[in-house]
């Protein structure tokens, strides 16, 4: 087989793929009409998961689950946009890891707004200026984002979905020779997380490390001068058109950040693999065993707790706390209902959503 004949077969399959995708979009358009006439929710993560699970389970070709997921999440994003163009706010600037997380869920065709603070993302969802907001909630090496956790208590928003993305850094520069580089821009945390690459590559060289407020800003600066470089996300290097000289330069490939997708009054149907986040403001936490007894109820119902964070209640000069608790399962399931029935007044459910690895 020649390259030309293989390419011509690929062309013909691509034609068929496009025809099928257009047929799919015709159906999606009808789903959109139906949903709009009944005021039904457009974004249904549990249905998307069901489709990906089904395709993965019946698949016997070369595509692995991650590949199927990447392609179909983009198809769903285009579908949702066709059903109802939705605006998505994320913690900016453009090219941030949160932008990358937002794009991984809402695709290339959504209407994005980069906002400067986590609070402004919450507020734009709250006021209805955008339908969804994407914020970072924790990093598996650095811990929780306190501001985000506190705003979950302060504001009245739901969690529609979670996204976890590996934090990969790239070394982007217009320079072809490391010895020509005089300044490397990045965020201090990124310098820390890429320290091995930096000491191996710049040992004996004169480059100065310049901390800036975001890795996107670093990419922007590196785009302006050929003898500089940025340690930044892939998406930032792409956005500012700075060539990537080295990819995945982080010390640990275990570095992952978890993001939440926020919406107003959002409820998912059970998917079979859900997680539930709740806020617990337990009465009388000064008396012994109140928290322990509450947590034991999860154990008694055989519910696996995945997270518990305590945060100050800030109700005067006291040392009282509220808790963000996450557990496996969907709020509609009887075990969880049992606990909620008992503690209804003290507990607020933020959402049940598909649990991702
Ligand atoms: O099944 C639906 O509810 C749809 O709106 C269709 C569709 C799809 O493209 O398959 C699109 C968006 C939803 O998030 C889930 C699935």
UniProtKB/TrEMBL annotation:
Q: Where in the cell is it found?
A: Cytoplasm
Q: Which SUPFAM superfamilies match?
A: ACT-like, Chorismate mutase II, Periplasmic binding protein-like II
Q: In which pathway does it act?
A: Metabolic intermediate biosynthesis; prephenate biosynthesis; prephenate from chorismate: step 1/1; Amino-acid biosynthesis; L-phenylalanine biosynthesis; phenylpyruvate from prephenate: step 1/1
What are the UniProt keywords, alphabetically? Amino-acid biosynthesis, Aromatic amino acid biosynthesis, Cytoplasm, Isomerase, Lyase, Multifunctional enzyme, Phenylalanine biosynthesis
What is any one of the record's Gene Ontology cellular component terms?
cytoplasm
Please name the InterPro entries in this protein's record.
ACT-like_dom_sf, ACT_dom, Chor_mutase/pphenate_deHydtase, Chorismate_II_sf, CM_dom_sf, CM_II_prokaryot, G/b/e-P-prot_chorismate_mutase, Preph_deHydtase
Q: Which GO terms describe its molecular function?
A: chorismate mutase activity; prephenate dehydratase activity
Q: Which residues form the Prephenate dehydratase domain?
A: 87-264
Q: Where is this site: Essential for prephenate dehydratase activity?
A: 257
Would the keyword Nuclease turn up in this protein's UniProt record? Answer: no
Where does it primarily localize?
A: cytoplasm
Instruction: List its EC numbers.
Output: 4.2.1.51, 5.4.99.5
Among Pfam families, the record links this protein to: ACT, CM_2, PDT
Q: Which residues form the Chorismate mutase domain?
A: 1-87
Q: What does this protein do?
A: Catalyzes the Claisen rearrangement of chorismate to prephenate and the decarboxylation/dehydration of prephenate to phenylpyruvate.
Concerning PANTHER family, the annotation shows: PREPHENATE DEHYDRATASE P PROTEIN (PTHR21022), PREPHENATE DEHYDRATASE-RELATED (PTHR21022:SF19)
Quote the protein name from its UniProt record: Bifunctional chorismate mutase/prephenate dehydratase
Organism, by scientific name, is Spirosoma terrae
Lineage, please?
A: Bacteria, Pseudomonadati, Bacteroidota, Cytophagia, Cytophagales
């Amino acid at each position: 087989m020649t390259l030309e004949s293989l390419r011509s077969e690929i062309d013909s399959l691509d034609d068929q793929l496009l025809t099928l995708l257009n047929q799919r979009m015709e159906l999606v358009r009808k789903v959109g009409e139906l949903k709009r006439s009944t005021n039904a929710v457009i974004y249904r993560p549990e249905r998307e998961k069901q489709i990906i699970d089904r395709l993965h389970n019946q698949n016997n070709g070369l595509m692995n689950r991650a590949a199927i997921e990447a392609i179909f999440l983009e198809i769903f994003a285009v579908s949702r946009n066709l059903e109802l163009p939705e605006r998505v706010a994320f913690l900016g600037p453009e090219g941030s890891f949160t932008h990358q997380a937002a794009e991984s869920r809402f695709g290339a065709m959504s209407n994005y707004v980069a906002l400067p603070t986590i609070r402004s993302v919450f507020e734009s969802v709250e006021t209805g200026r955008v339908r969804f907001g994407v914020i970072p909630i924790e990093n598996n090496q650095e811990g929780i984002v306190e501001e985000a956790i506190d705003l979950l208590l302060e504001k009245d928003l739901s969690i529609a979905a979670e996204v976890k993305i590996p934090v990969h850094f790239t070394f982007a520069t217009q320079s072809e020779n490391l010895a020509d580089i005089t300044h490397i821009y990045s965020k201090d945390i990124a310098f820390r997380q890429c320290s091995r690459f930096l000491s191996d590559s710049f040992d004996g060289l004169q480059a100065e490390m310049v901390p800036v407020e975001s890795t996107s800003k670093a990419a922007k600066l590196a785009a302006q001068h050929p003898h500089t470089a940025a340690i930044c996300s892939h998406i930032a290097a792409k956005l500012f058109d700075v060539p990537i000289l080295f990819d995945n330069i982080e010390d640990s490939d275990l570095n992952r950040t978890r993001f939440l997708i926020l919406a107003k009054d959002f409820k998912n149907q059970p998917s079979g693999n859900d997680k539930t986040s709740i806020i617990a403001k337990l009465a009388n936490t000064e008396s012994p065993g109140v928290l322990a007894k509450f947590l034991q109820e999860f154990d008694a119902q055989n519910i696996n707790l995945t997270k518990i964070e305590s945060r100050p209640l800030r109700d005067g000069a006291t040392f009282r706390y509220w808790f963000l608790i996450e557990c496996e399962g969907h709020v509609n399931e009887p075990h969880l209902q049992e606990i909620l029935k008992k503690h209804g007044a003290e507990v607020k459910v933020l959402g049940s959503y598909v649990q991702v690895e």
